[in-house]
Known about the structure:
Layout: H1 5-20, H2 24-42, E1 48-54, E2 66-72, E3 84-87, H3 92-101, H4 103-107
Antiparallel strand pairs: 1-2, 2-3
Helix pairs in contact: 1-2
Amino acid sequence: MxxxxxxxxxxxxxxxxxxxxxxxxxxxxxxxxxxxxxxRRQLNDQINLFSGVEFNVEPAQGLNGICDFIITHSPxxxxxxxxxxxxxxxxxxxxxxxxxxxxxxxxxxxxxxxx
Length: 115
């Protein structure tokens, strides 16, 4: 799937502003949101988008919190329903926090610090 001409123009305008910003929220709004909206449009509104929604899958395993974005393949627009694809910015600190909480990763030796 190729991005639309409209998306190309929006990103061309937004990218310098987003890159200059020191805010994750600004980058998200100016880069990721237009991409997801273009995807939704190209898929003839067959997916729905949620932003900043609490999504608690397995709190005991550390799979809980606020997702930056969730894509659903459901006609429901008010409540997140399956099937879903959650998205969030993966930062170095989030990776280490998850690895230290997840016993499976500790078992695999993945909780060791990376340089």
